[in-house]
């Protein structure tokens, strides 16, 4: 067994290099970073699988990993024929041709939250993985052996780490999570060889910083949280790392944090070499409903009023779709994408929704749409440059929002919401130029907040319940589906291997690889 | 464009209004906040933090007498004295290893005088502080406050105008105010099928869940006109399944055939009203329903 393992490892080790420059133009036989490339589009130029043959898409292999309550919420990476995927405290490498596990790294038991892990980042032969107790671990991708680990936050302060690190040049950019005890939010950049801190950017201002006046005082800002818990996107030409931040704290009790509470619930552009803020836009000023604006800000170039523009778009948890100029952060489009949104009084001069104080949580409850889980959430949106459509899974949910902490200095969540049902769930295809819905698919049942992937084969892959489903991306017609043993739990990926295109999805504790079978030669 | 109208699967999905159905209460999951006030608040935090309730009680007295003057009644700080719930030293502490030295010696260089506490008092205050941080940091311990702020008269008028098509104060809802606390009642009448905290719940979770009372029913009409109906098990774009009145299970594919699928959720009226209530309507109706003892 040892010999067999050794020979397997030798076979893969020759190829295990990922040059960071490859991230700028990913190879067709790879999915080398969380979103497949830096843009966050989750659009693949591959088109071997298309509308003409997707009906013949069939299972090549399925593989289950062992463990207790494993939920693979990571988008697997594929580099040189090896898949790398995770669950909290676990990293696996598997042969992409068979699904056979090559190695399994297990992080020691700890008290951190195991809510999820979004995957690994890769640089050269090295993988980077965040642990529930907030260490950044580097592994040798060839063997799964730990190289080093460095603490990025104190788990006793209720931090927990779920983010897939993003590699930009020689920076390993990490974020953190945890919003139960009003602890400061930040991004860090770490050295790929040593793990040493290169820079740290607080997600809320400190004394003397611009926008300090969006908080009552430095103390409330320093405890204002705003965790960036989903990997961001990167524009190499502008050299901007663009990422969404989470809710302010205390979450639902706003008495001690009057003001816009920058840069929580914001889309921020950071220089990855310096860690300095370049611009920001705030989807939810003064949020009181837990509507993290962490949903992937997708980068693409488009035409606005006849002029080519560099754009960034987000379908935000608060129910609004935003398009910004990604050079300046200036707003171009703001439009609600679910009809039930009822918490804003209008838009301000910057295109940001103005929160209606009547919908702030109260002790007797206020009915708000969407719920704290949002109109959408972290599951991946997709942008197809060929259709010009932005795809997002949505639910028209309602909750009663209750204030539970009426102290002058509320802490933690300070309130709760109680689900009040929903008016249905839909897959939406949104025109980036005006935010209007071009087509929609109303699901007969189930949660609509699902992951999306588009391809140059004019296909959109998404899911409903335990079904993986392919749509015609332009028309919204269903072309194919397969029933899995669990609901897809992270974004599908696609790649070429040995001349064949594959679509791979993680669902619960298993991976499923689909391809179109070719005639025998 | 409604995509499903143009798919090869072409089917119709019709929701029938809940006309004169005898309303019944389905199984109910009140969600994140819990149905009521049992196991909430400080008792829940003491249990969660694994502290001794007696030590907590003694600690509360010792804290109030010795610490609250500067750090505030709830340990959330005041001018010159830090918030202890957010204190890194308190959060990092285990069994008083970090806190006890401060309570023994004070922090004279930072303006905190040496308190006059016995070792047992110090241990009790440590227990009390750990419960405070646990309580703030764990939503499951949060207790709802009074939701009875509405006007029962206005609630009754709203009820008579809106709810009596399916419900009766002297019939199906007789005594409902005695069966639930006010919070649970408000959550329940807003969405009788319940809902996970923030999750939305309601119609069609996990492929159309069923309930013993007020079940969702479905009628399937085949292209040849034959009709089947029963209690919905599951519906998605590809299949529909149900149990008929004899308890026989039926499952139909929706692919490549034109099936008419009509779904009747007798509780759908509750979901349809969500976009119509004002918050005072909600509070008034709750205030009225609690009077139905």
Task: Summarize, please.
The complex is a heterodimer of chains A (521) and B (293). Helices cover 3% and strands 40% of the residues of chain A.
Key attributes of the depicted protein:
heterodimer; A: Methanol Dehydrogenase, Chain A; five-stranded antiparallel beta sheet; 3% helix; disordered N terminus; B: 293 residues; alpha+beta; six-stranded mixed beta sheet; 11 helices
For the record, the CATH architecture of chain A stands as: 8 Propeller
Helix content of chain A: under 10%
Quantity of strands of chain A, as a count? 36
Taken as a percent bin, the fraction of beta residues of chain A is 35-45%
Please name the fourth-level CATH homologous superfamily of chain A: Quinoprotein alcohol dehydrogenase-like superfamily
Instruction: Give the amount of beta strand of chain B, in percent.
Output: 5-15%
Show the largest interface: A-B, 69 and 73 residues
- How many structural units, i.e. domains of chain A? 1
In DSSP terms, counting alpha (H) and pi (I) runs of 4 or more, how many helices of chain A? Answer: 2
Radius of gyration of chain B: 28 Å
Please give the alpha-carbon distance between the first and last residues of chain B.
Answer: 49 Å
Shape of chain B: elongated
Largest sheet of chain B: 6 strands, mixed
What class would the helix/strand composition of chain A place it in?
Answer: mainly beta
Mean pLDDT across every amino acid position of chain B:
84
Q: Tell the overall outline of chain A.
A: globular
Number of domains of chain B: 2
Rounded mean pLDDT score of chain A? 95
N-to-C order of helices and strands of chain B: EHHHHHHHHHEEEEEHH
């Amino acid at each position: 067994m040892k010999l067999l393992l050794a020979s397997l490892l030798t076979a893969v080790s020759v190829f295990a290099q990922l040059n960071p420059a490859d991230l700028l133009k990913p190879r067709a036989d790879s999915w080398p970073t969380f979103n497949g490339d830096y843009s966050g589009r989750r659009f693949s130029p591959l088109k071997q699988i298309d509308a003409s043959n997707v009906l013949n898409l069939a299972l090549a292999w399925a593989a289950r990993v062992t463990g207790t309550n494993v939920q693979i919420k990571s988008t697997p990476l594929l580099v040189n024929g090896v898949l790398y995927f995770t669950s909290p405290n676990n990293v696996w490498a598997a042969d992409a041709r068979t699904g056979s596990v090559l190695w399994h790294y297990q992080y020691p038991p700890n008290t951190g939250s195991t809510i999820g892990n979004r995957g690994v980042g890769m640089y050269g032969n090295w993988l980077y993985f965040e642990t529930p107790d907030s260490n950044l671990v580097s592994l040798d991708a060839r063997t799964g052996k730990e190289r080093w680990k460095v603490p990025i936050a104190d788990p006793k302060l209720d931090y927990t780490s779920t983010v897939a690190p993003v590699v930009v040049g020689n920076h390993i950019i990490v974020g953190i999570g945890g919003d139960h005890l009003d602890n400061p939010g930040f991004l860090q950049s770490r050295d790929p060889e040593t793990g040493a801190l290169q820079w740290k950017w607080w997600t809320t201002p400190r004394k003397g910083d611009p926008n300090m006046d969006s908080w009552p005082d430095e103390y409330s800002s320093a405890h204002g949280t705003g965790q960036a818990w989903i990997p961001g996107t990167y524009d190499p030409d502008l050299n901007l790392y663009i990422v969404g931040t989470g809710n302010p704290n205390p979450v639902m009790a706003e008495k001690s944090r009057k003001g816009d509470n920058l840069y929580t619930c914001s889309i921020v552009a950071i220089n990855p070499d310096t860690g300095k803020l370049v611009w920001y836009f705030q989807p939810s000023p003064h949020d009181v409903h837990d509507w993290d604006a962490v949903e992937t800000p997708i980068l693409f170039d488009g035409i606005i009023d006849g002029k080519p523009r560099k754009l960034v778009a987000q379908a935000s948890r608060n129910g609004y779709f935003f398009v910004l100029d990604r050079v300046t952060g200036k707003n171009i489009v703001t439009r609600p994408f679910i009809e039930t949104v009822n918490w804003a009084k209008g838009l301000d001069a910057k295109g940001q929704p103005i929160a209606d104080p009547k919908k702030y949580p109260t002790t007797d409850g206020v009915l708000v749409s969407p719920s704290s889980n949002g109109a959408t959430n972290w599951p991946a949106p997709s942008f197809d440059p060929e259709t010009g459509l932005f795809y997002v899974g949505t639910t028209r949910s309602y909750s009663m929002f209750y204030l539970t902490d009426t102290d002058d200095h509320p802490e933690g969540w300070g309130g709760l919401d109680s689900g009040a049902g929903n008016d249905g769930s839909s897959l939406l295809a949104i025109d980036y130029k005006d935010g209007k819905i071009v087509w929609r698919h109303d699901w007969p049942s189930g949660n609509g907040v699902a992951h999306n992937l588009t391809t140059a084969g004019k296909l959109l892959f998404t899911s409903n319940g335990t079904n993986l489903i392919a749509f015609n991306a332009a028309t919204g017609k269903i072309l194919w589906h397969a029933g899995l043993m669990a609901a897809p739990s992270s974004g599908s990926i696609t790649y070429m291997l040995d001349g064949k295109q594959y679509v791979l999805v993680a669902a619960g504790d298993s991976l499923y690889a689909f391809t179109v079978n070719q005639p025998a030669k | 464009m409604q995509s499903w109208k143009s798919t090869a699967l072409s089917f119709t999905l019709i929701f029938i209004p809940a006309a004169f159905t005898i309303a019944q209460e389905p199984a109910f999951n009140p969600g994140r906040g819990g149905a009521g006030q049992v196991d909430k608040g400080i008792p829940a935090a003491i249990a969660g933090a694994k502290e001794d309730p007696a030590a907590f009680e003694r600690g509360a007295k010792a804290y109030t007498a010795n610490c609250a003057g500067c750090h505030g009644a709830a340990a959330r700080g005041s001018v010159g004295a830090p918030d202890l719930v957010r204190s890194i030293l308190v959060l990092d502490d285990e069994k008083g290893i970090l806190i006890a030295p401060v309570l023994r010696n004070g922090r004279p260089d930072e303006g905190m005088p040496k308190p006059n506490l016995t070792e047992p008092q110090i241990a009790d205050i440590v227990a009390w502080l750990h419960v405070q941080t646990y309580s703030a940091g764990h939503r499951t311990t949060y207790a709802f406050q009074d939701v009875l702020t509405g006007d029962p008269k206005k609630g009754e008028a709203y009820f008579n105008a809106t709810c009596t098509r399916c419900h009766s104060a002297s019939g199906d809802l007789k005594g409902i105010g005695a069966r639930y606390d006010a919070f649970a009642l408000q959550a329940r009448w807003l969405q009788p099928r319940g809902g996970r905290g923030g999750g939305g719940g309601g119609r069609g979770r996990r492929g159309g869940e069923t309930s013993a009372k007020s079940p969702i029913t479905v009628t399937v009409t085949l292209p040849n006109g034959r009709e089947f109906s029963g209690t919905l098990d599951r519906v998605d774009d590809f299949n529909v399944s149900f149990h008929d009145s004899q308890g026989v299970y039926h499952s139909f594919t929706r692919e490549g055939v034109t099936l008419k699928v009509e779904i009747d959720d007798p509780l759908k009226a509750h979901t349809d009203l969500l976009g119509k209530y004002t918050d005072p309507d909600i509070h008034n109706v709750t205030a009225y329903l609690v009077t139905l003892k």
